[in-house]
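Teaching assistant here, posting this on the class forum so everyone can see the example we discussed in section. The complex has three components, and the goal was to see what a joint structure prediction looks like when all of them are supplied at once.
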Amino acid sequence: MTVKGFFKSNVFKCLATLLCVLLISGIFLTIMNALLAVTPEEKFQRAISKIYGKNVATTAVAVADYNSNATIEEAYRVEDGNYLVKSTGKGGYENGTVTCWVVIEFNNGAVCGIGKVVIDSNKNQSYIDRVTDKALNQFGELYNSEINEKGFTENMITNATVKGTKTAICNAVNGALDFVNNSFGKVRALGERFLEEIQKAYGENVISVYGTDDKGVEKLITKEDETVTGFKVEAQHGNATVNEYYKVKYTVDESEILHYLITSTGNGGYQDGTVTCRVAIAITNGKPTTIYNATIIGNVGQSYINDIKHMGNYSGKDITGDGFAFEPSGDFLSSGATKSSTAIANAVNGAITYVKTLTFEAPETNPDGDGGDNGEGGNS
Amino acid sequence: MGTFIAIVLAAVLTNNFITVKTYGICPFLGVSKKTSSAAGMGIAVTLVMVLATLVTYPIYTYVMVPLGIEFLEIIFFIFIIASLVQMLEKIIQKISPSLYGAMGIYLPLITTNCAVLGVTELVIGDMSAYIGDASMNIGWAALYALFAGLGFTLVMIIMSGMREKLNYYKTAKALAGFPIAMVTACFICMAFTVFSYISLG
Amino acid sequence: MNKYKKITLDGLIYQNPTFMLVLGTCPTLGLISSAFSAMGMGLTVVVILTLSNILISALRKVIPNSVRIPCYIVIIATLVTFARMFLEKFVPDLYDSLGGFLALIVVNCIILGRAEAFANKHTVPEAAVDGVMQGLGFTLALTLMGIICEFFGKGSLFGYEIMSFSIGMLSKPAGAFLVYGLSIAVFTYVIDCIERAKRVKANKLARENLLREVA
């Protein structure tokens, strides 16, 4: 075949068409790639806006591990002051890991909440689908200063029926918290957190809380205190162990009000577990009169503790009657958690019995005086 | 050794191409009426999957990535697969006419089989779920392709066995053909979910 | 106009690619566990199929017969690559949920099938209408099955939770096979019934006409 013949043959026509189509396609795609390519920055921005729900500017910060159960992969300071941490938690199902993006809310130089937890990737967690959004939202809902100190544990999170995977997620979140606390936040003293917790119950009122120093002498608890100790009791009262108490004083309409804040652990809960309550009892004219409020601060084995809805019913109850005790029924029972309700009633009753064994002086009119500090000798 | 077992188990059982990834369904439904043809198709697909991976993986890693033309991967891959299938057909025809008689008719169908393009795309992506911390290389890629193909063949043969049995029964008119084949496939998939409990720790 | 009506009816019903021709099964089975990704896949195919039909129909006299398949494949692969770039840039949610099936549109039998069976024999407007209608037939079928699978398999619709009850199997390949198979059965059964009713009606009419003439 001559050269001229080749150019006129069908083979050449076929080849030329194919090459033309390929060339045009290649050129078209190269142009489109230049126009439409998604840069790594854009990908990152996209991931962040997905977590944040809006576009935010971020600056990367140096990472370090403060917790052996988690590895901090990346961390960013968001323009609104919060921190965004990518953290990999260990200890999952089959020794796998879960990598999460955690938004840590940060204010006044301290961690103040968890904005969001989003799962990024995982290793070996076949049932990661069982971790629902509800479960992940719980990190933000449950967060408090105590958790900031101790970390989340797997049993706090519900709506996710995979223990191992949940543990890895908790580890990732705890790792992120530890990282931000240690790198950027001043760790708040126990006193500040303790006061904050108690202050919640008293709302606007300015309160002073009295505990003891290491020698057992009464002292005002301040925000700077590194340790907080109450008046030790450790006595059995009925079905409850009264552990310790604090005194709360505050002023309303120029008269000083004194509350005994008693920590008491009630027995007889679900599966022989216990519930620990903090009961604030108002002392009027040297006598315990009413319950100001009662809150649950801990439990052992009470799986349905979240079903307890009646704690508010204890508030304002008159307890002056002789041998007064609450029965776990009616207003003082939450259906679905009868055993836990019983343990709570036991704890409150224990606190009441204990406080009635104390003798009080009538308060002095001077608001600065430390009236009613004769709490000692209650162990009889 | 651990990586080897992990790849084999994932490719054949836990992440089977048909029952989990739903790749290569056209031949699975179309060529599974008889066990002999199902096995022939399965072997042909496996062969092309391995050869295609052996060609596309190095081209992608050593040519396209350095040149920055990853975005042309679909065109390159499909072209490579199409030419490979054509060449294979010609070669088999020349070398072994008997093999060509058994396998040749399936080869042209394979170009538009998503299992082949699927495996070449998979091995250049994130394989950390299969190979763990080991780094990806052409050996693992070809091994994965081989066992993914064998997994495909396995399910093809199971399916054809069931469909051969189905011929002995009367099927409602509306269900005859594809519908009953898909219901059968549903049961195979359910049986294969058992393997998702396999774990190598 | 009758021609376009036929193309439309063929695409949506009588030659529906999903229920009647059973083409493009891999993405169908892989994506109907979520209505959003099923519909997204369908619409992506509508766009690619229409464009490929138009291009192939326009080039049908230029491309020599012996290299037509490689040329079609290159054109389709180009369109798919473009669609992938476009989705990654502008609709990343859909890009993520389609996963590997996006690249596999290249080997989707519907597109190459329409190129071979229709576009290279018809004019550009006809090919365009055919592309849209075949694509819509695919989209409707996928969305319908996506809704069924997602509603019963996850208790949600397009990602919005509706009920807490769900049958997990239906959001897995096993359920996809079951729903697809039964959908084909129901679809063909309904079409059969309609056809039969039409035939009976036509026969009756013919008989009446005949009787009238005889009378």
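For the discussion questions: Chain A touches chain C at residues 10, 13-15, 17-18, 21-22, 25, 28-29, 32-33, 36-38, 46 (CB under 8 Å). Confidence is low (pLDDT under 50) at residues 365-380 of chain A. Think about how each of these relates to the inputs above.
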